[in-house]
Amino acid sequence: MSHSFIASTLRGFTRALSKALVSEQVSARPGLLQQLDPRVRLVGMLALVLAVVLCRRLDIIAALLGLAVMIAIASRVSIASLAKRVWLVIFVFTGLIALPALFITPGSPVLILPALSLAISAQGLRTAILLVLRVETAVTFTTVLVLCTPWVQVLKALRSLHLPAEVVTMLAMTHRYVFLLIETANQMFESRQSRMVGQLTGPEKRKMTARTAGVLLNKSIDMSQEIYLAMLSRGFRGEIRLLDEFGMRARDYAGLAAFLFVGCAAAWMGR
Amino acid sequence: MATAFAVQDVSFDYEGIPALRGLSLQIEQGQRVALLGANGSGKSTLLRILDALYFPVSGSVNFFGEPVTPGRFQQNGFALNFRRRVALVFQNPDVQLFNPTVFDEVAYGPLQLQWSKADVVRKVDETLEFMGIAHVKERPPYRLSGGEKKRVALASALVLDPDVLLLDEPTSTLDPRGQSQLVDLIQQWKGTAKTVVTATHQLDIVEDIAERVFVLDAGTVMATGTPGEILSNVDLLLKANLVHAHRHSHGGVVHSHPHSHRHSHHDHEHEH
Question: How many domains does chain A have?
Fold first, then answer.
């Protein structure tokens, strides 16, 4: 008999965990970004994302997308997985958002659809391409950064850039306990599956999901209280202190200068 | 040696549900103590009171002669000194591992206590080596096994080199080898100034980890004595739900007797 709902939920949990493992494997490879100080990666990628956002010329944004792909290849990120996980998904979702712009933006028509009494204008086409290309490029830079940098280093880099310690700690703990809750939910679904016979109806599935969510919420509240006690026990007094072990070398300064130069040049040329 | 903890007539409840009822006990400096009791007897609550995470509703706790009260913890000096000298290892290691990597986890306590960064790095590396977990120092806690998590939790307490170590069910989730290593570790502290208080219901390790035993039942001290005195008192163990009456038959005759699982050296035996 089929327990497709539970089985697909379990598959979802497993996927979430395996994605995190893939990210850790990529960040451990010797590549271009991996060799730079995490702060340089963070600032450099943010500068390039900012350039993409400020840029209005399609050719410059396309060149930036090319640069993102080159950085990904040099950092040993799989282009196939980037295309499947990022470009395709972004194309579908941003494409849907950009779709109306094709028809409602006034301008000279380049294609007329008589059956729908609609016309695609040149300006509308440009606006839609600009939107999709911008999002694709910005998300590619961000994904490459996240894949090449362990989450803990991203957090430390944010802290060393003076993001408040409370925010950094909150992000770190969210990342830490999300996995624990996924594991717990996974075990709850597995134990349910081991005791179930037959197929669930729609309302039963919804009831089960709601109950699982409720139990998880209760568990997470209990756990948050326990974690706070564990923090107090080890000397937490409201002030968060982190160990900052980063050190800048010559190649880090060169990398930072290159990223900032490209970012500024692209923003100026594409204005 | 001085008295590390003097607990006098302490009561505590969780929103009206009593956990400790007029509990009194004294723990001397350098003493290795076991708190024995069934689930819900108040062991974990007592450890949290000793670690000043909870404060009694009534009664008093003194630490080396100084009263432990919420007011004292408003003073930075007292709070930092107490947290350096007393460390608690929680029963569930997951609540204690809230940092992104093992290294950060072990470094958390020393950083909060404002050690210099060089000292933090040196001491953390030493502790990771000592606990045999240096190879997982960059790993996030969700990628550790149950036994590794427990070792990291222990390392995060030991790194502070505390005077008093409070252990809540420390052998749970540890494999037999890990359990033996922990028992060896506690045995090393015999005769030193280090005070170790272990809450457990695992009878087979008590003789190795304690010179003094307090048996807890329904939030109060039911009995106290040496491990030999306590473990040989079958009626007491039955009353405290630490052993159970085991019924079985020999040649068609059914009889019952107290039953517990104890490990003797490398063999496993049933105590009849």
Answer: 2
